[in-house]
Amino acid sequence: MAGRWPLRGARVAREDVGGPLPRAARPEDTLSARRLLSPSAALALSLPLLGRAPPARALPSCESWGASVDLGTCGEPALNEASGLAALARAPGQWLTHNDAGGSATLYVFDESAAFVEALAVEGATMRDWEDMAAGPCPAAVAADRCVYIGDIGDNSEVREDIVVYVLPEPPAGGPAVVAAQWRLRYPPGPQDAEALTVHPCTGQVHIFTKDRDGDPGVYALPAEPTGPDMVAELSLVATLPRATFDGSGLITAADWSPGGELLALRTYGGGWAWRTDPSAPDAHWPGSPERLPIDTSGQGEALAFHPEGGLLLVNEGSPMSVRRLPCATFTEVEGCPRPPEDSGGGEAADGESDGGGSEGSEGTGDGGEGVGQDGGGAGAGAGGGEGDDGAPGGEGSVADADPDADSGTAGKWPGAGGLAGGAGCGGGAAGLTLLLGGLARIRQSLRQRSARRGPRG
Known about the structure:
Layout: H1 9-16, H2 27-33, H3 39-46, E1 59-65, E2 69-74, E3 82-87, E4 94-99, E5 106-111, E6 116-123, E7 130-136, E8 147-152, E9 163-169, E10 177-178, E11 181-186, E12 194-199, E13 206-210, E14 218-221, E15 233-234, E16 236-240, E17 252-257, E18 263-268, E19 271-276, E20 291-293, E21 301-306, E22 312-316, E23 321-326, E24 328-334, H4 417-425, H5 429-454
Parallel strand pairs: 6-10, 11-15
Antiparallel strand pairs: 1-24, 2-23, 3-4, 4-5, 5-6, 7-8, 8-9, 9-11, 12-13, 13-14, 14-16, 17-18, 18-19, 19-20, 21-22, 22-23
């Protein structure tokens, strides 16, 4: 997920600039081991904080569309009313789907030959009328890189007091599939039916598209954070889509964003449409007119998703379930989601946020962050960091260089790597690197002084 643009600054440092540090190299582990960071190790730990993310993988984006290709049928008896679709990132070529009303809280995995792979019971969810699913970045409260969103949003009779959207980390092969968060929601005008749900790949914003039998369908945005099971939040109307745009039908049955956020597709029973969008302005396209997609409209089509290698995958209700692909006829490569602004100072540094206190040290690893560390005996470097402010250090981490051999000592004046991390975490850039190198030079100087005081080892 390198290069994605999260909604929340606290996640930028951890995920957008290179991803989480390997477990053995996280600053808090270094602190707990009470080992001195060597200059080279401190520099290595700092690189993800300085914006040196690996380049995003180029993504194929259809300029024009080919002819629909029949990939086969899936004969799994339990999968008889497919009504949602999402690609599995962990297993390219495999897909998730689910049944709608009347089924169980189960995800089904199949591959692109339409062969059934496995069924995964979803723990922590109930099934009333699951109508669509999507995959994308997780909410801040969910500790995973990629999540699956399941919309229990169907309401043919328009009587439900609230609807539910479940969030779970993408399940591994064999499961478990466990709900980690959820929204309970209601529409401002009262109950409505819906069968389409999307998650923007860059912002994580979730939308629901209503299925309107008489009027114009609406597009509603969910709150940024899940409500949990005990609260109900109100959806926000973002746009109303003229039914004339879709050949006079307001019966939207599926929708999805492309992996780069530059295309938004939806389908009705009578056809498919797509907007060409600006990933950095994901609501700007609503007033525009989408282009028609040459999808196969035979059968009852209620699921569609973008293919990671370009084009769309589509499935129909019924048993056996038909699987088709709409490929690109011509395509360009796009970079995907825009990078976050470089001057977004004020965000938190990456893993290892400190609480401002130095740690008692045998080798004296002083904790970085806001304030001056205490009881940081011996030579050490702070790791972690306070809040950066447009490249400024997040505070001085400290060690005791007054008496390097002491088990606890008076506060010293070394800016720890943590103090520097705050500046480099969001918007530190060259200034953060300069501060870091200066701090490392002072570490080396103090080590030489310490060695001279101790004398040669015998």
